[in-house]
Amino acid sequence: MKKHLKIIKGTIAAAAFSMSLAQTVMASDVESLAREYVAMPQVQQMMEDMFSPSSMAAQMTAALPAHVQLTDEQVQKIGTIMSKNMIELKPKLEEIMYRSSIATFDAEELRALIDFYSSETGASVMAKMQPFMQTTMTELAPEIQSVQQKIVPEIAKILQEKN
């Protein structure tokens, strides 16, 4: 009986060790795949596009009230200034994307993202995503501003409430 108990204990310990080792390998896999995903040329290009002068100018002008009109030269200058300063955030963005990828995706999902964005179709989708979102948000900006103006008084009341 004691011999069987030792065998069972040994088997359980070996299984626990194997599971622990498998989890470590899986975590390492996810970390490696997350780094690979963030380092992909398509993802790097998306970040570059996001911080480009034209993208920065579009974001800025979309956030301005409708009555503010800028010349093309002003828009260009604003975009250039914003881009030069915002691009400094790229390393931080990469690190956040890496950590977020680990927290959000499993190894199979990261592999699927890498495979898709490495394909011709995936690369095309990635290249179009930033302009797509920029156009969408530029068109939606006036409505967002309208909603914000409408709810600011309500939010101000909540902030003035005593706990």
Question: In a few lines, what is going on in this structure?
Answer:
The protein is mostly helical and 163 residues long.
Q: Name the helix and strand elements from N-terminus to C-terminus, one letter apiece.
A: HHHHHHH
- Shape assignment: extended
SS-based class: mainly alpha
Largest sheet, strands/sense/barrel: none
Percent range of helical residues: over 70%
Q: Count every helix, treating DSSP H or I runs of 4 or more residues as helices.
A: 7
Total strands: 0
Radius of gyration (CA) equals 25 Å
Overall pLDDT: 84
Spans of at least 5 consecutive residues with low confidence: 20-26
Beginning-to-end CA distance, first to last residue: 65 Å
Strand content: under 5%
Structural features, described:
With 163 residues, the chain is mainly α. Helix content is 87%, strand content 0%. It has helices spanning 2-39, 41-50, 53-63, 72-86, 90-104, 107-118, 120-160. The protein starts with a helix and ends with a helix. Mean pLDDT is 84; it is low at 20-26.
Topology:
Blueprint: H1 2-39, H2 41-50, H3 53-63, H4 72-86, H5 90-104, H6 107-118, H7 120-160
Helix pairs in contact: 1-5, 1-6, 2-7, 3-4, 3-7, 6-7
Key terms for this structure?
about 160 residues, mainly alpha, about 85% helix
